[in-house]
Specification:
The chain is α+β, with helices and mostly antiparallel strands and 114 residues long. It has 3 helices and 6 strands; from the N terminus they run H-E-H-E-E-E-E-E-H.
Amino acid sequence: MFNSKQDETQEISMLWKGNCPECLLEGKRVRMRLNSWDFYESEATGLQIALLKGVQAIVLNFRGKGEFRSINEYGDEVYDMEYLSPQNISGFPFNDGTIFKTVDEVSTYIKAIK
């Protein structure tokens, strides 16, 4: 359990641990669930992550629609400390190797997602 909002913000660091980074920035812990497009989607905000297992967790620049798979699969059950990264390529693998370096970069990027 966290003691302060600062601790929760620190929790996202630059490594994805299966929870919604947007929610962590707001002081909430929300699991991300596999959706029908094979992306992990926040059950609260629709934020999506494309996972390159063991390498990167790419925060997509568009939100999901809550169309989850019938079998529940959650990010916190499969994460392997992947680096949070922005989507900067339109197709797979959605990223050119760029990773977020600060929590502020993550926050600014997420706030721009419609």
